[in-house]
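RETRY 2/3 - previous attempt timed out on the joint model. Re-submitting the same 389-residue input unchanged.
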Amino acid sequence: MNELSIIMHLLSRRINKHQIGATEDEICEILNISGKNQSLLFNQLMINLSKYIEILGLIIKFNSIDSHWFISFEAEMSDIIKANPFENKPRLAATLFCVIISCITNFGKTTISEIVKLRKKKGILVDLRELENYGYIILNKDSGEIKLTPLIGYQLDINKLFINLALKLREEN
Amino acid sequence: MPDSMILPEEIHNQLIKVKEDILSGKIYLLELELNPIFQSIKDSVSKNNIFQYSQLFKETYLILNQKFEELKSLLMRMDNEQKFIKYLETNPKDLEIAVLYEGCWNGSLQVESLSFEYLQMSRNRLLNFLKEPINIKELSRLDFKDQFFLEIPKLKFTEKMNEYLQTIIDKLPCQFGDIFENEKDQMLLYEHFIFLLHLLQLGKIKYQKETKTLYI
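RETRY 2/3 succeeded.
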């Protein structure tokens, strides 16, 4: 067992329903890396591991929601393994989109009433419950508060989603 | 040079075409993938053509820089997050929103069987396969009380040779090959051949070269 096999284990482990992988600090602590060169050594290890797993169609990614590093399939592989959980479910995709936009503009939280207002459709609560079952949001039925879980950061490239939206708005303008 | 190696001229032509397409509006900078160009430069550069490549790298870097500037200006235009909300307030269709997710989904790798315990177990199993280093031990000395005798055969060579002479004396005279015709054991054959050579040297047996005959 060497450093790379330990990192491979840490990056591919499931921590709980909403989290996988490990933070930089967790990895460095287990590998006993510390001091002023910690980040440099950490980056070198990650670059080396990414070279090994590249041939398998895997890449190392960072989830900015909970600062965890994890292993993901390359874009082409993601298409092949059908990573899109909302295939033929555009309604759910649209509701999640509203939740993401609303959370970003409201410091990471939103409410059921806000989503209902944005969606202008009936049965939104059913959508939200289903999204909760997927593990993407936490729904507080009493207060009506909605929070995004870190899981969405593992499965969805949010930056790319915003770029897609920005490009669309640019075309329309 | 491998068949797949791209020449600097080809990369240069590729860059010229990319620039033309950007200026004519055929390619939108933010949709342009620069990685393949940088990879081609990296794969085909060598110490012999480094001077050609430094210019190519500079040109590609300038396009990358333009891409960053384009992204920056796009983000500047979109910095007001309320624009996203305004977009949603236009009541876009579900399918229209779903299209925005294109290419954004990732499949994450989770390997439960690659647990820490499993890795630890594999490591221990591997270590068990490795042989222990060879220890060189000093040989123990036996006490013979200064009386050591080398084991020697019970019969002396001459006695064994004469015994052999008695066994073949009735066959003589005969052909050289006939004397060994009944020999089955290879070791005994060598031994008897040596005796025969000695008997010839001592003159107890004679040999006629022309007829290949042994006689007394």
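Chain B touches chain A at residues 28, 30, 71, 74-75, 77-78, 81-85, 87-89, 91-92, 94-95, 97-98, 100-112, 114-116, 119-120, 122-123 (CB under 8 Å). Closing ticket.
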